[in-house]
Amino acid sequence: MSAIALQHDQIAELFLRHKEAIVDFLIQKVKCPDTAQDLSQEAYLRLLGKDGLTHIDNLPGYLFRTAERLSIDFIRHHQRSGAKTQTLDDELTCPLIQPEDFAILSQQCELLLQAIASLPRQCRHILLLRKIDELSYAQIAGQLGISEKTVQRQLVKAMLHCHQLLIDPQY
């Protein structure tokens, strides 16, 4: 059979005449309307790229066969790449702090700093030595020249005061 060159307008007319049927055919193959549309366009472009066609007697069949081969290639590629990808969980959250959470934390930090600043000097000093410097009760007691029991009482007093101010800023 000899190769016959078709004009672009002849190919466009052929494609437009069969586009809906090709898209429906591809939807059955790839199960996605958007992908079916893309593959039908690719089939059209492939037909446009041919210099000479030997299947002039059945151009619609040639167009459908091209579309079918494209769908097979797409499915194979999708199956290969699908094994490498993971589906996203709908409940997946961003690991970074969100702006509204940051605003809340910022307010809480400000309240905590105000609560610490409002403590009596020795109480504040004990709290900072324990929580910031991570000294033991015995180390704090030795450094300040007070009993461990006093360190414990002052620390409890400081933490209760800070906790109360975080719960009720008017306290």
TrEMBL record:
<dbReference type="InterPro" id="IPR013325">
    <property type="entry name" value="RNA_pol_sigma_r2"/>
</dbReference>
<feature type="domain" description="RNA polymerase sigma-70 region 2">
    <location>
        <begin position="14"/>
        <end position="80"/>
    </location>
</feature>
<feature type="domain" description="RNA polymerase sigma factor 70 region 4 type 2">
    <location>
        <begin position="110"/>
        <end position="162"/>
    </location>
</feature>
<dbReference type="InterPro" id="IPR039425">
    <property type="entry name" value="RNA_pol_sigma-70-like"/>
</dbReference>
<comment type="similarity">
    <text>Belongs to the sigma-70 factor family. ECF subfamily.</text>
</comment>
<keyword id="KW-0805">Transcription regulation</keyword>
<dbReference type="InterPro" id="IPR013324">
    <property type="entry name" value="RNA_pol_sigma_r3/r4-like"/>
</dbReference>
<dbReference type="InterPro" id="IPR014284">
    <property type="entry name" value="RNA_pol_sigma-70_dom"/>
</dbReference>
<protein>
    <submittedName>
        <fullName>Sigma-70 family RNA polymerase sigma factor</fullName>
    </submittedName>
</protein>
<keyword id="KW-0804">Transcription</keyword>
<keyword id="KW-0731">Sigma factor</keyword>
<dbReference type="InterPro" id="IPR036388">
    <property type="entry name" value="WH-like_DNA-bd_sf"/>
</dbReference>
<dbReference type="Pfam" id="PF08281">
    <property type="entry name" value="Sigma70_r4_2"/>
</dbReference>
<dbReference type="Pfam" id="PF04542">
    <property type="entry name" value="Sigma70_r2"/>
</dbReference>
<dbReference type="InterPro" id="IPR007627">
    <property type="entry name" value="RNA_pol_sigma70_r2"/>
</dbReference>
<dbReference type="InterPro" id="IPR013249">
    <property type="entry name" value="RNA_pol_sigma70_r4_t2"/>
</dbReference>
